[in-house]
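ok so i was messing around last nite and threw this chain in just to see what happens. nothing serious, just curious
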Amino acid sequence: MGQPVMYWQILSKQPAKLADFYGSIFGWNVWPPDALGSRAVETGAGEGIPGGIWQIPAEAQSMVQLFIRVDNVAAYVQRVEANGGKVIFPPQVIPSGDEVSILQDPEGIPFGIFRPGKKL
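result:
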């Protein structure tokens, strides 16, 4: 099994503004925030990977973040650290049941890894 990119997320200081921006340009439907503050994005294309917009603190850097599906989050965290990466958010199970960790590559670019809590 490979480790595909399964989700993208726009990290924003002004998520409502960006929801309006992308909705106006591309016709995307952006849902209200969930319990973790993430707004799901529906592109209406019927293809591609799903995404969302998430609120970040004012001192954080806005960016696009990718989420990669893995079969063992702890093992991949160890691989990242062994190859010069860093752990930003250690492995945790979130309310959806997914196990997630946010990491940083050697250049400082954050990305997420996850193991689904339910069958995809």
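not much to say yet. Residues 15-26 form the longest helix (12 residues).
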